[in-house]
Each structure stands twice: as structure tokens, then as C-alpha cells.
Amino acid sequence: MNSLMSKLLSRVVAPVVLTCGMLGMANAQGQNPIVIKFAHVVADSTPKGQGAQMFKKLAEERLPGKVKVEVYPNSSLYGDGQEMDALLLGDVHLLAPSLAKFEHYQKKIQLFDLPFIFDDMAAVDRFQNSPAGQGLLTSMKDKGITGLAYWHNGLKQLSANKELRTPKDARGLKFRVQASAVLEEQFKALRANPRKMAFAEMYQGLQTGVVNGAENPYSNIYSQKIHEVQKNITESNHGTLDYMVITNAKFWDGLPADVRTELEAILAEVTVEVNAQANALNEDAKQSILDAGTTKIITLTPEERAQWRDAVRPVWKKFEGDIGADLIEAAVQSNNP
Ligand code: LMR
């Protein structure tokens, strides 16, 4: 995985490196670089981890001495449950929480958690780039949050020690969920027990049996070693795990205009690369899981997959009021290019 992204980095990154000399010069002129802290909860090897690194590299190369980007992966600065408050307090400047983690700020973003709403990542992409999708980026201004971009991870797969082939196999099992009411309802619809749990606690939760199963894209499964504590993965592709790159609106608006414009251009470039490579990183992670030999990957027949879809489809209706029927329709339409 790393080599794939290294290749990518060497392709997009200009061969100019930030030298100590440049930094020294800037300091001699009394210009302290603006420090931008970018915190996230996943590993460097994942699409989001790679995107954060790429952003750092390009920003420091193209704004030498003006900007210093500090990336904190793996919940090392702030984890789930703290990072949003830290952003609003100005203690961290960039985050990319999964779209499941916005319900207290913008309920319409719950759309992305509705099970089986997008047929594939191309549909997710089309929706995110549509006026409706782009509108969500700016919909939290009143809360002090500016959305800058959507980054892909990918589609989620179910995992457990038990084989999950049809919805009844999930009955009674405890599943770790992100802090999302939609995801809680999804598992309740399966007559399973959802347990909200921070991402950093998932491995231990599964290892100790506090929870029995989870839902993650392959890149998160592999990088968190979830496969070591789950004997089976069902390739359900039942939902999306994507991100919104967000900043503190006051911080961003307060940046010097030339710096902000350059950072936005860099972010746009990084977004294209992250979204183009996310699928390959997940496929690579899937292969690594197979190579590890710890876990069986179960492929569903179209009929089996339809059973899962039918079991969780009632969840859409429950959230239609919060999300809006029009937005749900726009998302569904993105399945038909
Ligand atoms: C999760 O909590 O499962 C994800 O949001 C983690 C991530 O950022 O990919």
C-alpha cells in the first residue's frame, strides 16, 4: 500500500523540497510559519492517512516558510468524541471525520449512512460533486465549521467470528458502530445490538468480546488488524465510509488570502488523488487480509445481498424527516448516470 502511494506522491509532488535554508530565511525575516494541525483517527497507510500526508508535503513545498502542517494519525492528538470540540476551540485546524460523525452538526449528512443508498463509489462521487452534495459542505457555517472537500475511503464490509450470510445470522450479535443514530438503527433492523464505540477502541472491543462484529472498509480492517480478531468478513458493500475534510471557519477565513487560495488549490489536487486511489488501497488491503490467512471473505449471491438490503431498507423512512426526501431522492438518482 505504501509503495502505491509513494509512487503517487512522487508523481504529484514537485521535486522541490523545503530546505532548512528556506525556513531559516523566513525566520530571519521574523515570519513564523502558520502551524496547521491535522488530526485523524486512522493509520497513515489508509486513503485518509495518505491524503493528510500528501497535503502536508505539498503545502510545505509550495508555501515554504509560510505554513507548517503537523499530521497526527491514529487518534494520537484527538480521537472520536474530542476532535470536533478541539476544532471548534481552535486547538486543531483540519479534521476529516467520517460522514457518520456529523449528526450533531448537520442531520442531513446522515444521508451517507443510509444502508444500500449508493450502488457503488462512482455514485457516491457523483452525488458529492452535485449541487446537493456540495451544498452540504457549506451547511455548517453557522456552527463554525467549513467543509472543504469529500475524501473517499470506500464501501463497508461486515465482519464477525460467526459467518454472516443472511440477515438472521446477525441476530443477537453485538456490533461496534460509529456515533451514528442511522447505524444504530441499521443493526437494530437486523435484530442485532449496536454499541457505539470510538474507532481506537474497536480492536480491543472485538478481542475481548465486548462486541462481536463490526463494519469497516478493507483499508481500516487491515490497518487496525481487525482481521486478527474476526474469522469472517462478509463482502456486503452495504454502506459508505467517506469523509468530509473540515476546518474551523474562523481560522480558515482568517488566513492570509494568498495562503488560503494556495491551500485550497492543494486540497483540490489532493482530493482528486485520494479519491482516485482509495479503491486501489482497499483492494490492496483485501489482498493483504487474504494473504494473512486469518479470515475468510464471504461473497454474497445477489439473492443473499438482496435479503440484507430488504432487512435494513426500513431505516431510510425513519430518517427521512431529518434528511429530507428530496436529498434522499437526489442520492438515489446518482445511481443512474
Ligand atoms: C470509524 O470510526 O469507523 C471511522 O470513522 C474511522 C475512520 O476515520 O475511517
UniProtKB/TrEMBL annotation:
Signal as a keyword of this entry, yes or no, is yes
Short name of any one Pfam family annotated for the protein: DctP
Q: What is this protein called?
A: C4-dicarboxylate TRAP substrate-binding protein DctP
Keywords, alphabetical: Signal, Transport
Family note: Belongs to the bacterial solute-binding protein 7 family.
- List the lineage, top down: Bacteria, Pseudomonadati, Pseudomonadota, Gammaproteobacteria, Cardiobacteriales
User: Where are the bilayer-spanning segments?
Assistant: none
This protein's record includes keyword Transport: yes
Where does the UniProt annotation place the signal sequence?
A: 1-28
Q: Which InterPro entries match?
A: DctP_fam (IPR018389), TRAP_DctP (IPR004682), TRAP_DctP_sf (IPR038404)
